[in-house]
Recover the amino acids of this structure.
């Protein structure tokens, strides 16, 4: 027995000595981490993307705690089991021998009528659930969804076709397409043509103010003012024509109305200019619902938000995140690479160099909100304020760059991720064998030629690694951006057709801040909950896409220089 134990202990000692336990521990830890990541992404995907599936609408009657009966038409969100004592405490009559009871969270919609969008209902006194085929969900631009039944379609107050007519739904689809087309045309006029005219009028005002600041007087000022007045008249006439066209479109949209009724028989008029979509989920098959799912998801990623960010899309946030990360990468890469090259190739080893390296390493651990405070104080108020006084004095007291915006948000992120790029690039330079340097110098190349034509190209994959890490961190940051340029709602994109086309001074939306705002600042928590999951998954997918693009470029560079070395 003793010999068996000794042999077993020797095997364990030998197994431990060759490092096998640590290999298994590392492998197990990596596996657990991967499972956690996949599980988290899966949870976000299920919770978020299920929101876009057209849910069936049920009709039932419920009894409240004072015994009043109510007919509801709603969408079941979720259910939970609660102690029966909670229901008794709220005034409901529950059998004494019953310990648990189920309650359901219903999305009632019709917020403009009942002032409630979501409500809990107990199963006590609830009648049988029915799913009427003619129940409709009307998505509106204001006041959320409407749940009810359609009575008729009116044109200028006169009934055109009533419910039950053979061509009712065909007429409804045709008029919905018409109203959406007209609304898109009106939106384009407001954003493009009217926006362009307003921009030109603002430029005229600023040019006149600039002449006043430059001290221009006399005949020169009179001639300039006459020219400005002539241009202003032309622009105002152009604006009047466009506005007339826009008002005509608005009147055409308001021509049609839907007459509908709620489940309890209350009649309501819905103007087509406020409608987004009318569907009958109970009458839709699997293929129709799949098509509706794709349409709603595409709207989510391509449209602007509405209803305090609880409805509509998140395209401005996606675009803002993407362009901010791109500008950040353009700024941080050259500065980080040049700093790393200097520290590794030119700086003399000593106390001063060690202090710089320690400072760079410590900067990587500074909380991000500190960078935001620094960006607000130095970039926005100091640099931006001085730029306004030097180049945009005619706009004051309204600031141009002396206020948070896209450029300062990108510059703050560049400063935040600069240590990552420096450390990664320096590590890449240090891994290049000294024999390559010596061989290049032996062949007659200068130190500068060796550095820029041999060493730096070979270190490019390491530079890309630093950029990948920088992108991953920058895209998910929220705290500093709240101070230097990201806002809750900025549907206008920082890129348009007006000079200078890319407006670095403009405030933007960001996916990370959008998640924070919808999740913690929304007035309608239940409506915002699925959007938090969906937006989170979009942010994760965006970061993965950016990282995979950078990884692909890095691998191509690695293969290129490896084949060149062979």
């Amino acid at each position: 027995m003793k010999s068996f134990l000794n042999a077993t202990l020797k095997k364990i000692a030998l197994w431990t000595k060759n490092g096998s336990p640590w290999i298994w521990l590392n492998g197990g830890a990596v596996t657990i981490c991967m499972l956690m990541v996949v599980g988290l992404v899966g949870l976000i995907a299920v919770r978020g993307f299920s929101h876009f599936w057209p849910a069936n609408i049920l009709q039932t009657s419920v009894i409240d705690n004072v015994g009043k009966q109510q007919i509801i038409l709603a969408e079941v969100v979720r259910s939970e089991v609660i102690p029966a004592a909670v229901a008794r405490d709220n005034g409901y009559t529950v059998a004494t021998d019953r310990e648990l009871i189920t309650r359901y969270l219903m999305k009632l919609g019709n917020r403009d009528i009942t002032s409630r969008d979501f409500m809990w209902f107990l199963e006590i006194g609830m009648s049988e659930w029915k799913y009427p085929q003619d129940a409709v969900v009307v998505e509106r631009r204001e006041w959320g969804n409407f749940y009810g039944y359609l009575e008729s379609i009116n044109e200028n107050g006169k009934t055109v076709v009533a419910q039950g007519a053979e061509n009712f739904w065909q007429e409804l689809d045709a008029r919905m397409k018409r109203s959406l087309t007209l609304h898109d045309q009106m939106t384009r006029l407001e954003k493009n043509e009217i926006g362009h005219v307003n921009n030109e009028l603002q430029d005229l005002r600023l040019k006149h103010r600039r002449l006043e600041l430059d001290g221009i007087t006399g005949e020169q000022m009179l001639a300039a003012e006459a020219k400005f007045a002539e241009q202003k008249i032309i622009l105002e006439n152009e604006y009047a024509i466009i506005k007339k066209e826009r008002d005509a479109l608005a009147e055409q949209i308001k021509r049609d109305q839907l007459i509908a009724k709620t489940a309890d028989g209350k009649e309501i008029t819905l103007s087509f200019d406020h409608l987004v979509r009318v569907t009958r989920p109970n009458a839709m098959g699997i293929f129709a619902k799949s098509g509706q799912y794709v349409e709603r998801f595409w709207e989510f990623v391509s449209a602007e938000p509405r209803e305090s960010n609880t409805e509509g899309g998140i395209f401005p946030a996606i675009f803002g995140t993407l362009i901010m990360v791109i500008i950040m990468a353009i700024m941080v890469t050259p500065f980080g690479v040049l700093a790393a090259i200097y520290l590794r190739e030119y700086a003399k080893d000593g106390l001063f160099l060690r202090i710089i390296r320690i400072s760079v390493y410590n900067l990587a651990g500074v909380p991000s909100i500190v960078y935001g405070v620094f960006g607000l104080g130095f970039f926005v108020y100091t640099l931006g304020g001085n730029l306004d006084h030097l180049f945009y004095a005619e706009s004051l007291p309204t600031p141009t760059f002396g206020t948070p915006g896209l450029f300062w948000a990108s510059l703050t992120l560049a400063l935040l991720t600069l240590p990552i790029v420096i450390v990664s690039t320096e590590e890449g330079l240090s891994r290049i064998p000294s024999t390559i340097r010596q061989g290049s110098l032996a062949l007659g190349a200068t130190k500068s030629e060796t550095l820029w034509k041999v060493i730096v190209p070979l270190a490019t994959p390491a530079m890309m690694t630093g950029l990948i890490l920088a992108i991953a961190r920058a895209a998910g940051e929220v705290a500093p951006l709240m101070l230097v340029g990201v806002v809750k709602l900025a549907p206008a994109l920082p890129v348009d057709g007006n000079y200078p086309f890319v407006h670095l001074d403009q405030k933007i939306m960001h996916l990370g801040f959008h998640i924070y705002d919808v999740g913690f600042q929304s007035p309608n928590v239940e409506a915002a909950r699925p959007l938090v999951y969906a937006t989170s998954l979009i942010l994760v997918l965006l970061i993965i896409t950016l990282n995979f693009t950078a990884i692909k470029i890095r691998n191509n560079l690695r293969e290129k220089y490896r084949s060149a070395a062979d």
